[in-house]
Amino acid sequence: MSRIRSRAKAVVAVALAAALAAGCSSGASTGPAPATGNQDSVDAALKAGGTITYWSWTPSAKDQVAAFEKEYPNVKVNYVNAGTNKEEYAKLQNAIKAGSGAPDVAQIEYYALPQFALTDSLANLDQYGFGAFEKDFSPSTWSSVRVNNGLYGLPQDSGPMALFYNKEVFDKYGIAVPKTWDEYLAAAKKLHAADPAKYLTSDTGDAGFAASMIWQAGGHPFTADGRNVKINLADAGTKKWTATWNQLVTGKLLAPIKEWSDDWFRALGDGTIASLVTGAWMPGNFKSSVPGGAGKWAVAPMPTYDGQPVTAENGGSTQSVLKQSANPALAAAFVRWLNHGNGVKPFIASGGFPATTADLNSPAFLDEAVPYFGGQKINQVLAEASKTVAKGWNYLPYQTYANSIFSDTVGKAYVSGTALDPGLDAWQKALVDYGNQQGFTVSAG
User: Fold this and answer.
1) Which CATH superfamily is domain 161-313+392-444 in?
2) End-to-end CA distance of the chain, in Å?
3) How many Å apart are CA 428 and CA 214, to the nearest integer?
4) pLDDT in tens, 19-67
5) Which of 278, 221, 244, 257 has its CA nearest to residue 394?
6) What number does CATH give the domain 9-158+315-373?
7) Residue 202: which of 166, 270, 269, 252 has the closest Cα?
8) What are the domain boundaries of the chain?
9) Contact of 166 with 200, CB cutoff 8 Å
10) 331 and 78 in contact (C-beta within 8 Å)?
C-alpha cells in the first residue's frame, strides 16, 4: 500500500530543504520533552464533534471515512487525496512553510516521519495518553512512530519482508525455495542459465529496498541524536548485503525491468520474474495488477545469511496530527479510531497488512486461505515475519531527500552492472554535505 511511486523529487527536495532549515534555526530538532496525558480531551472532542480534513492515498481511506462518519455523525471528515507519498509531502511541506493550508490529519510513511517531527510540525500524541497503546502494536512499527521522545502517530500498517515466489516456475526448473542468501544466489544463477529470458528477481535501484536489505543484514548506517547525525554506509551490515547483491548486479542476474511499470507487472504474471523479496503489503498488488499469476505464487520466509529467522520492514505508514490543526484533540480521536479502533477492519478488508498485534494474532486473519496464492494461508508466514524484524533501525531526519538522490549515486551501478559500494560511498558523501548545509552536524563513518 505504501510503496506507490511518484515523480515529485525536485519539488520535494526544495520544500524539504526550506522546512529543515526553518526547523533547525528554531532548535526544534533537539526533540520535545516527554509528554504525558490522558484521553479525556480526545473523548470530549469526539463527543462535541466538528469538522476535520484528512489527507491520504490509501485505497481504504474513503471507506474508513464513511464508516467513521456513520459511527460519529456529529463529525465531518473532509477526505482529500493529495497525491501519493512524495507528492503529498511536497504539498504538506509547502503548507507548513506558509503557516496555513495543512490538513488536520495526514498519512505519512515511516521513513518520512522524522523530517516532519523534526520541524515541530506534528502534535505529540503522548499528550493524549496514546503512549498506553504501545503493547497493542508490533514493536518495529511502534518504534517507527517514536521520534526524539515524542509520539507522532499511531501505526497503520507494517511491511515485514518475505519471499514471494512463482511456485510454477520454481517447480519447472527444479529450484528449491531458498532459505539463505547463498541459496538464493545459486537459484538466480540456475534459473537464468536454464532460460536466459527468466530472472529470479528484479532490482533497478530503489532506496527503500536497499535500506530494508541493509536493515535485515544487521546494518545501522544512520544514527541521529537531535541535530547530530552519523552516516556509515560501509558498516558491517551494509557490506554483508553488498557482498551478496553485488553478485546479482555484476552478474546481470537482475531483470532489467523498472519496478511498478506495466512491463514489470506483466513479467510477474508470465514468469519472467520468478520471485520478489518485499513487504507484507504486496498481496493486494498481486491480486489487482498481476491477474496472470493467480494460483502460481506462494510466500515463504525471507532468506537470511545464516538460516536464522530475521527480517526487516519495507514500507508502512502512520497517520499524524498536524500542529496547524484548529481541533487537534478531534484529529487525534480520528487517528485513534483509524489505527486503534474500528477503522482497522476496513483497512484489512482493502488488502492492508495490519500493525495491531490483536489482528496479527487473530485466527480469522491467520487461517484465511488466499485463493490467489493457491489457498495458502500466507498471513501465517507474514505475521511470523512481523515478530522477527531486526531491532535498532533508524532513518535519517532527511530520508525523503536521501531517497530522491539514490538514483543519481547508487543507481548508476545498476545501470553499468558494477559493484554497489562506490555508489554507496557517493551517496554517503552527498548526504553528509547536504545535512551539514541544512544545519545538522553530520559525520561520516
Assistant:
1) Periplasmic binding protein-like II (3.40.190.10)
2) 34
3) 14
4) 454 444 333 334 444 456 799 999 999 999 999 999 999 889 999 999 9
5) 221
6) 3.40.190.10
7) 252
8) 9-158+315-373, 161-313+392-444
9) no
10) no
